[in-house]
Amino acid sequence: MTLQSTRILVTGIGGAGCRILDTMAQSGMTGPFYAAVSTDSKALAGCRVGTRQRIGTQRDVSFGTGEDVERGRQAAEESQADLVRLFSNLDLAFMVGGLGGGTGSGAMPVACRIAREQGAMVMAVVALPFEFEGQARADLARSALDAVRAESDLMVVIPNDRVTDGNASRLKDAFARSSDLMANLVFGLWRSLSKPGHLNFDFDDLRAMVRETGGTCTAGFGDAVGRDRSIEALNALMQGRLLDGGQRLQDASAAIISMVGGPDLSVGEVDGVMTGITARLPATARSLLGVMIDDGWRNRLTVTVLVSEAWGTPRPRQEETSTPPVAGARSADRGSSRKRPPKPPDRQQKLKLDFVEDGPFRNAPATHLGGQNLDTPTYLRRSISIRDG
Length: 389
Ligand SMILES: Nc1nc2c(ncn2[C@@H]2O[C@H](COP(=O)(O)OP(=O)(O)OP(=O)(O)O)[C@@H](O)[C@H]2O)c(=O)[nH]1
Ligand SMILES: [Mg+2]
Prior knowledge:
The protein is α/β, with parallel strands linked by helices. It has 14 helices and 14 strands.
């Protein structure tokens, strides 16, 4: 099922959430519906998106909560009616923000709960504070993480520390890098789920994945331009601290791999990247692949990977949880999509791919690993189901 973009909302909560949304809206990531939510009217004013929702009734929180999680939570509860309106008629709600302050940490779990009560699947994408922000913020973020996890279907955790190259990064650049990563991640997922592409996973695949995994993920990111873009993007992804130099892949139970390339992207490049990633996953791990072709990405390749955390435990499906929906909130349309019969086992379809022999792997000798010929397309070797959109 490809989602209508009108039924997906990207919500930024708190100061970091508003800044990340502003980054997205101002850097050409047009298409998603954006809503900024904060206690802080200044942060809202600086976020140039279509919908801005101030939460809380107290006048003295117009500059944020000052790291008061309880006030953040209360503000969201006080504005419950506004949030119900905001999150009604959605299939999927992305919640983006930083944990460690009062608004994001306090309001995000409430917003997630309300969105789920309205029938939406909730994907939370959260940043954790830098170590230099201190132990108090780290502790606060940890408890908020548990609260968000309890109220969301899938949570992607980006520890800010892991996005930087260590002490060399300037503070401003460090936040910007983390925000960019989160923006690209959310936009990549939005595109895969709302726009039919050449190779796509859809909402049903994502929901199956969420059910099978613990619902908590970390992410990796690689981006490169030029002739060797696929090799360099893969290297950047593997060497990045977010995936612990690829270590996180070895412990994963599932991975969602999104690539964005230009019309010049070749099958060899897609396969080279897929092979590089899936060769490091355990044999039992499930993978979803989405490839988007964008005219603006000529000569460029962006790879984003969501990797499930091995320590997560499968959570009950949303239909099985005890939280009742808000009366009258669930549309007939949405209700019927929730009651779909279980999907039959995935079977690989015939893909309409043109094989173009112009990639960087053209003259490369066959690569063997663990008795397998890695030049055989990964989706065939590992029986991964990918759809021709
Ligand atoms: N990635 C990223 N993280 C940020 C950014 N700004 C802040 N953070 C992180 O998010 C955490 C929460 O900060 P804010 O979002 O400003 O706090 P808030 O939710 O508005 O909370 P209060 O201002 O206390 O009400 C911080 O501890 C930072 O680690 C940003 O621009 N990008
Ligand atoms: Mg703030």
